[in-house]
Hints:
The protein is mostly beta strands. Helices cover 1% and strands 47% of the residues. The chain has three domains: 2-30 and 316-451, no CATH class; 41-171, Jelly Rolls; 182-310, Sandwich (Jelly Rolls). Strand 21 and strand 22 (364-365) form a beta hairpin. The longest helix is centred in the last third of the chain and has 6 residues, at 353-358.
Amino acid sequence: MIARMLAGAVLLGAVAAPVAPLVPFGPSIAQATGLGAGGEFHRLPPTRIYDSRPETPLNEPVPGPKPATNTAPSFSLGILGEGGVPVNPADVLAVVVNITVIAPTGSGWLNAYGNGAPAGTASIVNFAAGQTVPNIAIVRPGADGRLAVQMYTAATNGSAHVAIDVFGWFSTSGYSGTDPGARVEPIAPGRLFDSRAGGGALGQRTAVPIMVRGATLTTGEVIPDDPTITGVMLNVTAVNDQPASSATFVSVLPADPAGMPPTTSNLNLVAGQIKANMVFAPIGPDGRIWVYNDAGSTNVVVDVAGFLRTGSSEPTRGRLIPLTTPFRVFDTREATWGSVALGPKQSEDWSFADFASSVKVAGVPAGPQLAVIGNLTSASLGRQAPSAAPRSYLTVFPADAAQPGSSNLNMVEGPAVPNMAILKYGAATTVRVYNDAGYSHYLFDASAIVLA
């Protein structure tokens, strides 16, 4: 077991090289917007609000591929008033979107942030040439109500298409509507559903219902059987390596799509691929969600990271604060963190205590926190033996909890793999990361915190 501290300390445990003292976080690094009574989630029917492809243009007068070059150019798009998001910027604290990079001409990354805000050093989507790669993100609109999207490749004339689906938004303290919204309740992750354990793979244009309210996870955690539970935060993994698999997409919906392809997707896959994506899923009136597979034959695994509850009387618990700009908390490739990959069947702990204390609202510390939300990225996966290409997964969970039978990321040797993760803190604001095989370098970009 290795312990790593995020600020004001050196790495503890076995490391391969001397480790320099870390620089404490300053108050301007993880600065958040003013909160007041805001921070509640308002769910929306999944809706595509932007698409740069000429055959399916949305929210753009002149559609076309967007530049992705070695200068990391950016473009902006309107997000307020789209897909049910309020028009008034005084109402909207942050928006939950799924951003998909389509047909990039080279390998690179995408970042998204409020138009006019600093870009920072974080990334939301990592992609290789020709891939279609989605990832969910919590983003703050700029003061003009627009979102900036930045893409990098090593080329001088690269490009990619971009599609964006909206799933909900978080309200400010000045929200003037009547919907009170829901609070975020992070939990130690646990498995809700695995088609490999019964029922079999989902066939072409097939959807399966999954009961959420009242369900018992593999960890023993029970999701309350209560109509105040209006949504669930899921890590959905598609295991698209069946003999009859093909390129497909997977969608999570609040109702039976009745065999009709949804207009939004949560996962896009090629044949043979195993991929995960975080989903903010609205729950149907009957307490269920539906998982849809579009083509071929695909197994689906669903892990729960938290749920959304309405009607809370607690003053702060479950309120979400987005950071001004996504912030890179750590990167195991960097000398600051020891430049040490996490080995096979190994775990290591990260203390977020100094990070949590650095987050301020209008210059005042945000206070006790339940979790941090951000982008967990597998940067590289090294081989245990020269002749054997590794396949692995990362699992992140509270450091004082038993290791769950769930995963946050599935990765193979090759391009970086990102996925949003909700890291519920254990004792002393600490989380544990487990790597199953190979030697994994990984990083975490924080985008929001959840108050206790």
